[in-house]
């Protein structure tokens, strides 16, 4: 256990070299200071604003872990500043002064709930004594940069889909109620040099895979909507757990009072994805492919199919916009009504469009892949596909986290779809995905593209299990 030391004598700091702002993580119970023995020294000193030592009775606090290459838990008074000095190993005399400031809370009892990862920051001010050599100075800078990278890297990973639970589906999953689109089979007779149509079969296959991401998104919203807790319900559940003595001590997690807001953000991203996809088809795909094939009639009634679900899509968007501004009004009933009204026309359209595009492979004007017209068609279709998935911090993570990469044909194709370097995909899923990390917990697949247990369905099952265990104990 760390021993409480007297306040260090005041000293004058030279101009600070760097100020680093990093997130911290709240823990539910105090833990002891940890380190690596002789190689690291640390001391915790709690003082009030006048420099007087605080007694344990005056200090009501949660425990905060500084996420660093060296784990240093410390106790944080809710209305005071904790002063923590950590000596860097293998450095002569330079040291970092870390000051942790907590926002004020109304009462000590609310401290644990009022201070969280998003409202708590750690400010590290590095001060170096005047006699440090240039070589030592370089090592100080490297240590600061490494610590900063570790702080922020930990924060990003903690919020990203990389850190989500990965449990294979054992209950309902996102392959129903809306049926997935079969991926058109490759036709070997179209793959010979100079033979027409192969580029359109490939386009139809990619469209099917993209449509299936949309369908899994729809299904994941439909199946989880009944199990998402409104803020008031989540708060009541947490109070019940607290009153009954359950919670972290029994291995259960607190309900997230922002769950409804995150779920609404996830659902609105699906609407944006579908709207972008629809607009790009009408503005780019339909007219340009008609020009390539020299046939203005090839799409038939496809635009009427779009119109058949647009009104219901707008109604859904309006409802979600209302919930986005007032998450406490969340109720699954109205949302499920909007989704049910949208399902039949949307499902028919997503299936029919793929079938029609694949059938164009036998069109008299279909270009051969190795021809100039085929190259133009391939470029047009590729650009359309990219533009359909636009939105680095919302639509792109949504899309990638609803692509099932375990679905492949006999030749193993589609296991790495969409085609992109793995580091780029990782960055889009886990880097860009960390910006709105709470939203993607409701996605149907994990960061590697594997089907995962739907978050709200799993949480509902855990709540039922706890209720049954509570009844059994009575």
TrEMBL record:
Q: Pfam families recorded for this chain?
A: Hemerythrin (PF01814)
Q: Where is the composition biased (Polar residues)?
A: 44-57
Residues of the region (Disordered) are 29-61, 235-258
Tell me the CDD domains matching this sequence.
Hr-like
Q: Where is the composition biased (Low complexity)?
A: 235-245
Q: Which residues form the Hemerythrin-like domain?
A: 257-356
Instruction: Tell me the protein's name.
Output: Hemerythrin HHE cation binding domain-containing protein
Q: What is the lineage of its organism?
A: Eukaryota, Fungi, Dikarya, Ascomycota, Pezizomycotina
């Amino acid at each position: 256990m760390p021993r409480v030391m007297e306040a260090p004598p005041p000293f004058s700091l030279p101009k600070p070299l760097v100020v680093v702002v990093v997130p911290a993580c709240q823990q539910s119970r105090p833990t002891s200071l940890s380190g690596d023995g002789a190689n690291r020294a640390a001391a915790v000193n709690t003082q009030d604003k006048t420099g007087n030592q605080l007694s344990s009775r005056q200090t009501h606090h949660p425990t905060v872990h500084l996420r660093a290459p060296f784990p240093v838990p410390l106790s944080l008074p809710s209305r005071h500043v904790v002063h923590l000095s950590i000596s860097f190993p293998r450095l002569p005399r330079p040291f970092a002064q870390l000051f942790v400031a907590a926002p004020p809370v109304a009462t000590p009892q609310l401290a644990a709930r009022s201070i969280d990862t998003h409202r708590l920051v750690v400010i590290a001010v590095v001060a170096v004594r005047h006699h440090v050599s240039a070589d030592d100075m370089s090592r100080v800078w490297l240590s600061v940069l490494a610590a900063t990278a570790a702080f922020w890297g930990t924060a990003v990973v903690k919020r990203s889909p990389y850190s989500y639970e990965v449990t294979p589906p054992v209950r309902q999953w996102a392959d129903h109620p809306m049926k997935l689109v079969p991926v058109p089979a490759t036709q070997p007779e179209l793959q010979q040099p100079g033979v027409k149509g192969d580029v359109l079969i490939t386009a139809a296959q990619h469209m099917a895979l993209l449509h299936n991401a949309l369908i899994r998104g729809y299904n994941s919203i439909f199946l989880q909507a009944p199990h998402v807790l409104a803020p008031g319900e989540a708060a009541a559940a947490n109070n019940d757990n607290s009153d009954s003595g359950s919670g972290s001590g029994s291995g259960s997690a607190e309900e997230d009072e922002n769950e409804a807001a995150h779920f609404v953000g996830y659902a609105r991203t699906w609407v944006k994805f579908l709207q972008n996809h629809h607009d790009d088809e009408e503005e780019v795909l339909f007219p340009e492919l008609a020009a390539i094939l020299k046939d203005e009639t090839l799409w038939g009634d496809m635009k009427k199919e779009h119109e058949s679900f647009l009104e219901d899509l707008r109604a859904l968007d309006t409802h979600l916009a209302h919930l986005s501004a007032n998450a406490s009004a969340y109720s699954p009933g109205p949302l499920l009504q909007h989704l049910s009204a949208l399902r039949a026309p949307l499902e028919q359209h997503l299936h029919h469009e793929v079938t029609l595009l694949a059938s164009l492979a036998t069109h008299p004007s279909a270009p051969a892949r190795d021809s100039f017209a085929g190259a133009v068609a391939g470029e047009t279709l590729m650009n359309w596909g990219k533009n359909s998935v636009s939105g680095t911090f919302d639509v792109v993570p949504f899309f990638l986290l609803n692509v099932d990469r375990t679905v492949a044909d006999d030749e193993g194709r589609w296991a790495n779809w969409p085609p992109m370097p793995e580091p780029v995909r990782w960055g889009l899923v886990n880097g860009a995905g960390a910006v709105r990390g709470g939203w993607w917990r409701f996605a149907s697949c994990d960061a590697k593209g594997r089907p995962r247990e739907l978050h709200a369905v799993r949480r509902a099952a855990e709540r039922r299990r706890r209720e049954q265990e509570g009844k059994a104990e009575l």
